[in-house]
Amino acid sequence: MQLGFIPPEIWSGFSLAFKYIYALLPIWLPAAFIVSAFRAWIRYSQTKFWQKEGSVLLEIKLPREITKSPLAMEVVLGAFHQGGGEGTWIDRIWKGKTRSWFSLEIVSLGGKVRFFIWTQLKHRNNIEAQIYSQYPEVEIYEVEDYAKPFYYNKNVNQIWAAEFALTKPDPYPIKTYVDYGLDKDPKEEFKIDPITPMIEFLGSITEGHNICIQILIRAHKKRRLFDVFGEKEDSWTDEAKKQKDEIIEKLKVAKEEGGFPRIPSKGESDIIAALERSVSKFPFDCGIRAIYIADKDKFNPANIGGVLGFVKQYSSLNLNGFKPAGWFTDFDYPWQEWFGKKEKLMPRALEEYKLRRYFYSPWRGKKYHVSKPFVLNVEELATIYHFPGSIASTPTFERVPSLKSKAPSNLPI
């Protein structure tokens, strides 16, 4: 049987292809089943492992005065570089063990700005000790998940969500606190802290609006052979060497063509130095998400620009920066929203945020993000997540008193 509108040569090609598919059915069908079953088992074993491990959300309340530079946070985050935990292939596949991951969160709930860290329960004491060692004046509390009450109902509220990716290959660093001179501990009135504009913006929104920024991290490791966790194949340092070699190769080509060696420009020298400095520090796999949820009658699209703008101060034209990627609930053309794609994406994006599931298989539902983890070093992380000093004077930024009175000397024991 042939269809009249299909040319005979195309029809014969389809027919031959179907014959091969049918003939090879005993080979590819069992293989497809085995792969699907293997992935399902990995998800199941990891879920069991995570449930057994438990998790906790810690809120960090800041004092009115923080005089330390982001270098203090760099020291704290260095302790988050937990490369172990996966053990042998039996531990990873049979027991579901995974590398530890953490979520660094900056949240504005109706204009009240708060800092959180989500972690597996076993790391709680270590994290608290590291924070107190650098910031003894802060207060740390275990709290209920602020995102728990969030839900999506198209008749009640509206959601905008996005993930972020790097604009250039991973080894190119973003603009860090060192580039802003904060490593030199300038006086408070001379500080230019790149996190301050974001804090000020988050503090400016009003009741009924909620903006949440989530930075998920885990120690970066080179991909193993037959790895089931989907990490990048090239190591971070190998990629940095490749980028440097490309710049040097351009200089060699110029020499061959012109007969004289070309001296690297200041921009090229800066890039090589930045790449070398970048790979000298602890690397982390990262994912960054932002979500804006508001009552339907209060939803303000201008706040989306504010969220997207918070990454601008970390961007550099000759080095790296951030751009929206992954589940992005804005569409440019009507046909991109066919079959209710946007309505399905909003609750799934919210669910992904609440479960902090980025590197591994989810507890329930489908994994809906499409962006891949990228690599930031500990200096870059400390730049986008640290505790600001008094220059962040947002009235709704909750702080605790810097000075605490001592207990009375006559207090009975």
Task: List the topology elements.
Layout: H1 8-23, H2 25-53, E1 55-63, H3 71-78, H4 89-93, E2 101-109, E3 112-120, H5 124-134, E4 139-142, E5 157-166, H6 196-204, E6 209-219, H7 236-258, H8 266-278, E7 283-295, H9 302-309, E8 322-325, H10 341-355, E9 374-377, H11 378-384, E10 399-400
Parallel strand pairs: 1-10
Antiparallel strand pairs: 1-3, 1-4, 2-3, 2-6, 5-7, 5-8, 6-7, 7-9
Helix pairs in contact: 3-5, 3-11, 7-8
Low-confidence stretches: 228-233
Beta-strand fraction estimate:
15-25%
Helix content estimate: 25-40%
Number of strands: 10
| Average pLDDT figure | 80
**Major sheet size, sense and barrel closure:** 10 strands, mixed
Tally of individual helices: 11
Structural class, from secondary structure content?
Answer: alpha+beta
- Rounded to the nearest angstrom, the distance between the terminal CA atoms is 97 Å
Tell me, briefly, the overall form: globular
Radius of gyration: 25 Å
Q: How many distinct domains?
A: 2
Keywords: Membrane, Transmembrane, Transmembrane helix
Protein name: DUF8128 domain-containing protein
Organism: Candidatus Zambryskibacteria bacterium RIFCSPLOWO2_01_FULL_35_19
InterPro entries: DUF8128
